[in-house]
Amino acid sequence: MSAGIKLSPIPTLPPPVDPSQEDITIVMRRDLRRALAKPIEQRHWGMVIDLQRCTGCQGCTIACINENKLPPGVVYRPVLENVSGTFPNVSKQFLPRPCMQCEDPPCVPVCPVAATYKRPDGIVAIDYDVCIGCRYCITACPYSARTFDWGEFYGDAVCGAPTAYEEVPSLEYGKVWMREPGTSPIGNTRKCQFCLERLDHGELPACTETCFGRATYFGDLNDPEALVNRVRQDRQMMQLKSDLGTNPSVFYLL
Amino acid sequence: MVRQGPVVLHRPWQRNPVVILGFVLWVAMLAFGLQGFVERMQSDALFSDLQSWMPWGLWVASYIWFIGLSAGSFLLSTLVYVFGLKRLERVGKLALVVALITLIMAMMMIAFDVGHMSRLFEIYYRPQFHSMMAWMGWLYGAYFLLLVFETYFVLHADFVNGRALAGGQGAVARFLSFGRRESLTERDLRRDRRIVGVLATIGIPLAFAFHGGVGALFGTVDARDVWHTGLYPIIFLTGAFLTGGALFTSIFAFFWPNQDGAWREIVLTLAKIVLVLLLFDVLLEWADLSIPLWYGIGPEVAELKYMLFGPFWWSFWGVSLTAGVIVPLLLLTIGRNSPKAISWAGVLIVVSYLATRVNLVVPGLQSPELPNLQYSYHDGRLLYHYVPTWSEWELVLFVCALGIALLVIAARVLPSIMGRELS
Predict the structure, then answer these.
(1) Is residue B18 part of a domain?
(2) Is pLDDT of B10 > 60?
(3) Is residue B4 part of a domain?
(4) What ipTM is given for this predicted complex?
(5) What are the backbone dihedrals phi and psi of residue A88, each rounded to the nearest 5 degrees, phi first?
(6) What angle do CA B62, B292, B353 make, to 5 degrees?
(7) How far apart are alpha carbons B136 and B141 in whole angstroms?
(8) Please, is B203 exposed, middle or buried when counting C-beta atoms within 10 Å of its C-beta (0-12, 13-18, 19+)?
(9) Distance, in angstroms, between A125 CA and closest chain B CA?
(10) Domain A24-253, architecture per CATH
C-alpha cells in the first residue's frame, strides 16, 4: 500500500448475544414454541436484522425463493447493497428487506376487495383466491415489498416450458398452490408473510433459519423474554422510513 | 305496418378522402388490435413490459384517458339537459352516446389490465370502501346505469317514431320501444324530459365524484411522491372536461350531416369552451410541475426531471406540450372562425392527451422506493425502466377500434343522434 493513505480499522463482529453460547436458532425455536402456545391475538411476530452481522451472502434471498417456489419477477427478500467511501477506504453495507409487516400498512386499505389484510398476529397476508390482480397495493407500499406474479417460468427461456422444480407447489398460507395459467397465485400480488406455513409447524422463517451470519432474529415482540426483544437492548436501532408512521415490525440493529 | 325507407345519412366518405383514409386506418387498427387481444387472453400480462416495481403503464394511462373522455362528454350533455343551453340542444344526444361508448372503452381497458378479469365483480359483492378503487367500481356502475337510462329516455320518442323504418334502424327502434305502437303524447314527452333532467342532474355530482375520484386514487398514495398532491383530483377533472369537450367538438365538426349555419355556430361555441378549458388545464399543469421543481430539492424532483429531460422527453415537450397545447392554441385562436381548424385542434388535444396521461402514471413509479433496490435482484420484471411493448399498443388499438365501430353503428341505427328528425 502506498504511503500516506490511512486505512480505516476493519470492523469486528459484535459478541454473541447469549453468553451460554447456545446457537440462537435453538433459542428462537424455543421462543417460537412458547409464542405458539398463546392465543394468536396475543402474539406479534417481528424480525430484527443485525446489519453489523449481515455478510450480504444473499442466502436468505435464495432460501426464501426455495421455500416459496418464487417465479421470475417475484422476490420477497432482496438484499440491498450500498457502497460508501473511496478506495482504499471503502465499505459496503447490506440491508436485507423482507416485508415490514407494518402496524399500519398502507397496502391494506387500498385493496378494493379486502384481499390483503392484517392478521391478529401482525402479519399482513394476501388471500390469493380473492385478489383481482389490480396491483394498487404494489404502488402503495413504500418499501416495494410487493411484487406481481406475471405467470412466467424460468424454464420458458430455456426449454419453452416450466422446469421440473417449477412444478413443485408452493405451500404459502398453509395451502397447496400449483402455478398454472389463469389460476392463483399467477395474476396475483405476492409478498413475504414470514413463512406462515413454517411458523404454524413451529419452524422459523426460511430466511432466519438459513442465515449463517446469524444476523436475522425472529420471534414474538410481545414476549419480553424472547431473543428478538433481548437482542434489541443496548443497541442502536432503526425502522425503515419510520417518518411515514407505518410502524414496521422489522427492526434493524445498527 | 307500412315500412318507410331508412333515414339516409350524409355519407362523408363519398367525397372526403380523409374519411377514406380513416376507414383504412380503422381496419389496420382492428387487425392489429385483434392480435393484441388474442395475446392478452392467452397469456395473462406476459407480453407487456410492466414490471413488478412499475406495475402500471400504458393500459392504466389509456383507461384514465377513456374515462376522462366519457366524463367530459357527459358533462357537456348536461349543458343541454340540466342548464338548458339552447344553442347546444341539437348535440345533446350525441354527447350522451359518446359518453356511454367511451365509458365502455374505459371499462374494457381496465379489465384487460388486471390479473384476474373474472374476479372484477368482487368489487361489487365484497367491497372495501377504504379503497378509492372500490369507490371507483361502484361509481362507474352507477354512472353506467345512469347513462343507459338517460340515453334511453332521451331517445325514447325517436324509438317510437322510428318503428316504421326499414332495416336495422327500424329493428332497433321496434325493440327499444317495447311494443308501443302509438306516438308519445305531450304528457309522455314531458315525463321523459323530467326524467332526463333528474338523471342528468344526479349525473353531475356523480361525474365529478368518479373522475375526481380517479385523481384521488393516485393522489392518496402517500408512497408515490409525484402522485401525492391535492391537485390531482382537480387536474383529472379539468383534463376530463377538456378532452371530452375536444373529442365531442371534433366528432360534431367532422361528421355532423347538416353542416349549415347553425352547425357552424355550435362549432364556434364549442371551440370557445375548449379554449377556456385548455388554458385552465395549462395553468394547473404549470402549478403541478413548477411548485415541486422550483428549488430543485425534494423527493419528486428526480422523477419529474426524468419526465422532462429523461429518455422520453419528447413525449412531454413534443406530444403533450407542442401537439397538445401550442398547436391547438394557435388553431383555436388564429383559426377561431374555421370549423376545420377547430376540429383538428380537438383531434390534437384528444390524441396527445394520452401522452399526458402516460406522463402522469409512469414517472410516479420511476424511482426506487429504497436506494439501490433495482440492483438487489436481477430479473427482467424487476426493473425501473418501462417502455410499452407493441402488444400493449395493440390492445389499446383494439379498444379504440371497437369504440369507433360502436360509434359508427350507433350513428347508423340511431339517426336522431346525428340530428335527423324521424317524425
Answers:
(1) yes
(2) no
(3) no
(4) 0.88
(5) -90, 0
(6) 20
(7) 8
(8) buried
(9) 16
(10) 2-Layer Sandwich (3.30)
